[in-house]
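Hi D.,

Good news: the full-assembly prediction came through. Inputs first.
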Amino acid sequence: MSDAILRLDDVHTDIGQYHILHGVSFDVPEGGVHVLLGRNGAGKTTTLRTIMGLWRARKGAIVFRHHDITALPTPDIARLGIAYVPENMGIFGGLTVEENMRLATGSGQFDKDRLDRVFALFPAMEKFWTKQAFALSGGQKQMLAISRAIIEKRAMILIDEPTKGLAPAIIRAMIAAFREIAADTTILLVEQNFLFARALGRGVTVIDDGRIVHDGDMAALAADEGLQTKLLSLSLDAQH
Amino acid sequence: MTEISSHLNRFGGVYLLPVAIAALAFALIGVPSTWVTLTVAGLAMGMMIFLMASGLSLIFGLMDVLNFGHSAFVSFGAFIAASTLAALAGWVAGDSAILNIAALLLAVAAATAFGAAAGWFFERVIVKPVYKDHLRQILITIGALIVAEQLLLAIWGGAPVAVPRPKVLEGSLIIGDVAIEIYRIFAFLLGLAVYVAMHFALNRTRIGLLIRAGVENREMVEALGFRIDRLFIGVFMAGSALAAMGGAMWAGYQGLITPALGGELMILVFIVVIIGGLGSIEGSLLGAILVGLLANYVAFLFPKLSLASNMLLMMIILLWRPFGLKPAIKG
Amino acid sequence: MSDQSITSPSAIPDTRRRVPAGRLIVYAVALAIALCLAFAPFLFPDVRAQEVAARICVFIVLVASYDLLIGYTGIVSFAHTMFFGLGAYGTAMMLKAWGPGFDAIMIGGGLGVAAALVLAVLIGLLSLRVKAIFFAMVTLAAASVMMVLANQLSDFTGGEDGFTYQVPRLFSPAFKLVTDADGKVLRLFDVPLNGKIAAYYFVFLGCLVLFLAMMRIVASPMGTVLQAVRENELRAEAIGYRVVSYRTAIFCISAVIAALAGVLRAVWLKYVGPEVVLSFAIMIDILLMVVIGGMGTLVGALIGVVLMSLAQFYLKDVMEIAAEATAGVPLLPDLLNPDRWLLWLGLLFILLVYFFPAGIAGTLMKKGHHR
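Then the structure:
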């Protein structure tokens, strides 16, 4: 797997006095969507936050394109070309849609082509361009969060449960958008919703109790119902 | 009910509060000339307190740091301005209006520069090691406040210090039967200029955008690739400089200052920041104007209740809006 | 504080088997202080020392009750002297109005304590649900207003000068507590057993009872919950504790104890004024004492109060000598002026918070664990 864009090697993370990640190791290959599946509290969000440097790994290494980013400050990690869309979306509610997106550009200037592309993907962004972001609906906020991640060229985007609380119609639109975004960047997608994950994912890693319990192709997992039942009953909520 | 409140919001919402208080005071006072004098005094006082409060509010909003030593900047600003004015006695008392004003501006500038430098020192040495630990942060800044107040006493002594006021700003403007102190107009205009400058910087510049975003969600700003700690030291220095500027203006306003001045003003500053809502300069301005007006009206109508009235105002506003009138939107 | 929380769960069985050396030292020192205070009138018979001993007694209670907030619950309040002052002023005003008598102490003290309780409930419900810093600001504002009120309502409070009053005859030096066959005051170890002794033991026993009550509170299930809240508020909330109620409750308890300490102080001093029971300087003293002694230990209060009280006398002497020695140097004598002793104490305080946030008692107690 020399084509891995991101490699986690035996990563341990503590939050306060709680040991959350117990030696997480997996590779994210360059290009496409890689899915990190797991139920609530399995350690998915902790994994993303540790990659982003928002929580610190106590042990182990995180390597992004030959840079060891384990101990790097968060802004430096971001500047290597990693965008982060947190579970709560991290929208600046008091800022307008424009200001939210302008912040996400390194220079403060918009690249016209990319902006057009964002507007084509999410027309609502153009419509609410000068509105304060707190007035957006949940789905629109999610679109803004993703727009912010793609307004610049990024090597990789970390997305934490984008489908949470969204209506099925919006989820279908999201699938289309993600396919297009994944054409020129790598996405590490954290999900609980297996249908959404299966529609997008090329590779899949399953995490439970802070440990990796499965790592392989999405196609193989989708075909093997026995393995699915075993992993899904282990790792997914009954609701899906 | 909801219809009334939506109408109120259209015409300015909570910004109508100072107007309502002014109108009520007009009815109670009954003498227009007195009312105008008190209103101008209240606005001037409000603007000076705004200078002190806005920095504190932004520092808190951006980094969750409440600097209890903030009042030390106010005190030092006042005393440095007093010493500067005393040193420039020739300019201050001279007949040249330009030299008069220059002396005051120099005094304010000296205080402000000191505030910025002291703010840098405070942030690097005192506050930085205890970010994210509120208990120790409060204790450390209280400790720093004790030390700063003692230094002040060691340098200037405990006796009141007279502050010479530039000649051109002495006296009052008389319009009909209304007398307005010129210094108050000057203080109001300076405060207003600072507010406009801050408003512009926050809403029209990239640094301002970063600050507003950082107040809402610090982590996300970092995840977008910005070093917020560098931003923060700038804000800390600016906030401390503004506090010292406010102290300098206050010194000229009072004419006689004691080392207790910072501590006394700090209570008003806290009340302003609490009722205005943490992290927003609009809130600080609104709170400061409210407190300034109320302090002057009540001091005239019920002299003994001046400070208690502001406390009461704070209690009522907290019951109505637990996070203040215009808090910054959080994430 | 977080490292404390990591080690403590596993440390509990350890301490039950054998008491660690550090903990032993702390308790031994605390016991020695308590014994000195218990026999203070006989050990230190001069008037000044008795004043100091009575002040130490009351401040131990005051500081320990503050420790319930800051150490055990993580709440920073600046209103503690306000509650102390309410107890003291209530008692004093009633003694002044009704004349010396235990009824005045009971009713006046009771009213003061009740006022403290009402204010604590109000402040607590109003602002304990928001951030710690916000609470600190609100209490500071409330305390300042109380101070201004005490200064301005001089018809009732005597203003800045305060006022004096009489206490029950039992507590006056002229009262013969125990008489010999001739009707003269009996002397024990050469100390006359007069009303002054009675007053001292009234204060001492009152403080002892209050301190033991606080030890009981800390050891109760409520104490455990409070510490859980301090360590991890969200988790405590998730387990089902109503954090705001618990915080408000401890804030009220602490306010009531502070007010009771104020009652004792007023009975001893026969004088109240903003300087002795309300001022911000006292609040700073309390903060310094609780941090120096050790937050979250209760016994730290004894050590902190005694050390600070000694420092207030001896540090000034040392500084006086140092100031004279450096008389020729610019600025330095000003900084070493005995009036500037708070400067050095403030610096010490900052260093302490940086390097030994657990204070003397806390640091020593942690030392005992061999691991």
